[in-house]
Amino acid sequence: MIQFIDVSKFYEDVVLKDISFSINKGELAFITGPSGVGKTTLLKLIYAETIPDEGNITVAGWEIRDLKQRTIPYLRRHVGVVFQDFRLLHNKTVFDNVALALRIHNMHPKEIKEDVNEVLKDVKLKHKTNAFPQHLSGGEQQRVVIARAMVSRPTVLLADEPTGNLDSANSEIVMNLFKEINARGTTVLIATHNESLFHHTGRRVIYLKDTAIEREVSG
Amino acid sequence: MRVLFYSIQSALKNLWAEKWINLLTAFSVGIGLLILSTFITVTFNMDSVLKRWARSFGIVVYLDDDISAEATDTVRELFKQDADVLEVNYISEDEALRELRLILGSEASILDDLERNPLPSSFELKLKRDLLIPSYVKKKAEEIEEMSGISQVQYGEKWLASLNTVTRIMKASSIFLGGAILIAIIFITYNTIKIFFYRRKEEIETLKLLGATKSFIRLPFLLEGLIIGIVGGTIGSLALFGIHSVLVAKGLDFIPSVRAIIVSIPDEIFLSVPVAGALMSFIGSFIAVGKIRY
Lengths: 219, 294
Known about the structure:
The complex is a heterodimer of chains A (about 220) and B (about 290). Chain A is about 30% helix and about 25% strand. Chain A is of the alpha/beta class. Chain A has two domains: about 1-80 and about 155-220, Rossmann fold; about 90-155, no CATH class. In chain A, β4 (about 55-60) and β5 form a beta hairpin. In chain A, α3 crosses α4, α3 packs parallel to α5 and α5 (about 140-150) runs parallel beside α6. In chain A, about 45% of the residues are buried. Chain B has two domains: about 1-50 and about 160-290, no CATH class; about 60-155, Alpha-Beta Plaits (2-Layer Sandwich), CATH 3.30.70. Chain B has helices at about 1-15, 20-55, 70-80, 95-105, 135-145, 155-200, 200-210, 215-255, 260, 270-290, and strands at about 60-65, 85-90, 120-125, 150-155. Chain B has a four-stranded antiparallel β-sheet. Chain B is elongated. The two termini of chain B are about 25 Å apart. In chain B, about 30% of the residues are buried. The interface of A and B includes residues 72, 101 and 108 of A.
């Protein structure tokens, strides 16, 4: 589902060097390493926010390097992303924030309403449908972001430090949501420096260190 | 279609959220279009006046004193067959004298002492409107003067030159002022939409990451510009109608000379102003949104 072959990315310095790994369809895996090691860049490469300087990346059958500007949106519709900084629109309600992902898909308003209500029920935020993001707690905002990422039923779901701003109780809720999404068949890749998220989960963990893959631990 | 519907909804919401700045922009567009449409109206009316004046312009062709009736008919036929000539009027010696008597009024008795009528017979020629170019008329007059049986050709050379200059200045001013105002409208809308675009930069980035196409992102901004232009144009149209109505109802009593330049407004202008506003604002928004890169 996701394949990296000898991928390198440079900004002023080398950020990632000769990265090769693959994530299978339906897998839930973790990328970990200290802050600044390139976890976020690695995720950005997957949803084509940045393009590799060397090597090839394939995501759900799309070759990232061959993508044209006009085809990037269509790749992104297959990849749900849970951003570290949430990226919620503060002038829109919870419902509208989640519905936005489906409006982009040009879905019928009736279907949008049904799907959004269903996904808000899944993330236990049905009662916050008409609230604005700034009136929600950090955990609730994170669940809105997850709802927005999963509502369009993406093939791949990426999460960048999804529990970075959450307490342990909210972290557990969020992790359980990822497991549920994965159980429905979505490939999930989580980037985190929080080792407690993947300890004893039996899931594959890719360790990054000094711009390269240090080791892979299979669950 | 659903994207368009969503974009219209989104544009209307955004316009309402920033209603004051949008209203100010629409008013600026409206004022610009009002100035332009007023100028066009004045030009249109002035042009009508000039056309009316031009209709009275003629070349007077004096015939030789001893010209025969046959030769006069030949000259008349030549003028009638001339494609440049619109109208040919023959004024006999007697008619010319009658007109002179009318002009002199009570002083006409001085003509009684004349032994014979000193006035020559003449033709008054009206040229086609689009040929009233000083150089062309001069050439035409010279050609006529060369014809047999013609003693002299006269026309209002200076008057024609002034008429031509006024028309040229008006046309040039229309193009210059029109162009300047239309560019100003593009710039006004460009600025407003650019501000909105920067204010919603985060929203645009999020939309891009969620997989929105360029047209999905652009459309609400373009529609906002379009609506601002339509509203501005409508304001301009209504203001023009209002000013014209007041001028016609009250102003003419106080400034009668206004009648010469503001007679009527072409109906098309009331529709053209909002259309021009919409078009220019759309162009302004289009430039403001610019290229979207992923």
